[in-house]
Design goal:
Blueprint lengths: L1 H18 L2 H13 L1 H15 L3 H11 L6 H25 L7 H30 L15 H20 L4 H23 L5 H21 L7 E6 L2 E6 L2
Antiparallel strand pairs: 1-2
Length: 243
C-alpha cells in the first residue's frame, strides 16, 4: 500500500506540474462543481443544518439503526461498503478495454490517477476536519466534518463509473453498475450516521467532496490523452507521465 501511494503521489505531482495546464484543470473543476451529484448533496447538507434537522436525524438514526441493526454493525458496514467502492473501481479499471499493445501503460495511468485522486481526497478531507473541529455525535473526537469514509467512497465510485462507461455500452448493465457504485458510496455515508460517527450533513458534504475530486481528476487527466510509460534509467525505475 505504501508503494502504491508513492506511485500515486508521483503521478499526481507530475500532472499538477503544468502538464495538463492550469486552464484545463480549472475547466475540469468548474464542470465537476456544476454537476448535480456534486452540488445537490452539498445543498441538502446546507438545508439540513439551516432547518435544524441535522442533529435530530442523527439521533434518530443512531437510536433506531434502521438499515444496519446496531451502531457496531453500522460501523463494520461503513468499512465494508467503502472497500466495495474502492475494490469495484480497481476491478472496473482492470476490466476496461485498452488500446492494443498499450494495456500495461493504460492500466498504470488509470490506477495512478485513481490513487492520486483518493490521496487528494484524503488530504482535503483531513484539512477540513482539523479546520472545522466539529465534535462527532458519539463524542469520541472533534473530527466529524466531513466524513472521510463518504468522501473516499465517492471518489472511488466516481472513478469506477468512468471506467464502466469505457467497458459497457449504454443500457441495463451499465445502469446496474452505476447504481451499485452509488449505493456503496451513499451507503457508506449513511452507515457512518447510524454508527454515530457523523451527522447526515457530514456524510453529504463528504460525498460531495469525493465526487468533486474524482470527477475533476477524470476530466482533467483522462487517459485518452495522457499516456503513462515506465522508463528504466541509470538511477532506477522512473514514472514518466506524457502529456
Amino acid at each position: 500500500m505504501r508503494a502504491l501511494r508513492r506511485v500515486a503521489v508521483a503521478a499526481s505531482l507530475a500532472a499538477l506540474d503544468g502538464c495538463a495546464g492550469l486552464p484545463r484543470v480549472g475547466d475540469a473543476a468548474r464542470q465537476a462543481a456544476r454537476e448535480p451529484l456534486t452540488w445537490a448533496p452539498a445543498a441538502a447538507a446546507l438545508l439540513l443544518v439551516a432547518t435544524d434537522a441535522d442533529r435530530p436525524l442523527s439521533e434518530w438514526a443512531r437510536r433506531e439503526t434502521p438499515l444496519f441493526g446496531s451502531t457496531e454493525g453500522a460501523r463494520r458496514a461503513s468499512d465494508q461498503l467503502r472497500s466495495v467502492a474502492v475494490g469495484g473501481w480497481v476491478a472496473a479499471t482492470l476490466a476496461a478495454p485498452a488500446p492494443a499493445g498499450e494495456a500495461f501503460s493504460t492500466k498504470l495511468h488509470d490506477l495512478a490517477l485513481g490513487y492520486g485522486a483518493l490521496f487528494a481526497t484524503g488530504l482535503a478531507t483531513d484539512a477540513a476536519k482539523r479546520s472545522t473541529g466539529r465534535k462527532r455525535p458519539d463524542g469520541s473526537d472533534a473530527l466529524s466534518f466531513p466524513s472521510g469514509h463518504a468522501s473516499r467512497a465517492a471518489t472511488a465510485a466516481t472513478l469506477g463509473m468512468a471506467q464502466a462507461r469505457r467497458a459497457l455500452a449504454p443500457g441495463t448493465a451499465r445502469r446496474a453498475v452505476d447504481a451499485a457504485f452509488m449505493t456503496s458510496a451513499f451507503g457508506t455515508g449513511w452507515a457512518r450516521v447510524e454508527a454515530g460517527k457523523h451527522y447526515p450533513s457530514d456524510a453529504l458534504v463528504g460525498f460531495a467532496l469525493g465526487r468533486f475530486v474524482g470527477r475533476a481528476a477524470e476530466l482533467a487527466w483522462s487517459r485518452d490523452d495522457a499516456p503513462v510509460a515506465l522508463a528504466v534509467g541509470p538511477a532506477g525505475l522512473w514514472l514518466a507521465v506524457g502529456f
